[in-house]
Amino acid sequence: MKPKVRTAALALKVGASAVGVLMVCVAIGYVYDELTFLTGVGSTDLGDVVAVLAAVALALCGSALIAQLPESFRVKFRRLPAVAGRRKPVYGFGTLLAIGLGATLGSPLFILIPENVTQYEVISIASLLLATLLSVGMARVYANMYRVSKALGVYGIGGPSFTKVAVGTRSVRYFVSRLSMWVSNTALAAYTKIVFLIFVLDPRYLPAILAANGVTPFYASVTVYTVAGAFVCWTVLNIVFEQKYLRLLGLFQVLMTGALVLILVYHSIVLGSTSSWNISGLFNTGLGSGWLPALVVNTGYLYLLFFGFQEIQAMQRDAVERSGVPILSWVRKGFTLDRTTYFEVAMVLSVVIASAVNILYGLAVYASHTPLQGSAIPALYLAGVLLGPGQELLVAVAFLIATVTTFVPAFLAAARHLEALGEDGYMPRSLANLSWAFTLVAIFLLAAGNQGFLVDITDFMVLVSLGIISLSAYWLKPNLVTGLRVGKALPLVVGVSCFVFGSAVYAVNPSVVVFGSIAVIFAYLIFDIIELGSLGAQIFLSIFGFVSLTLLTALRHSVYSGGVLGLVSHPFGVDPNTLLVWGLIISSLLLATNVLLDVGVLRKTAVR
Question: The domain 93-510 is classified under which CATH number: 1.20.1740.10, 3.40.50.720, 3.40.50.2300, 3.40.462.20?
Answer without folding.
Answer: 1.20.1740.10
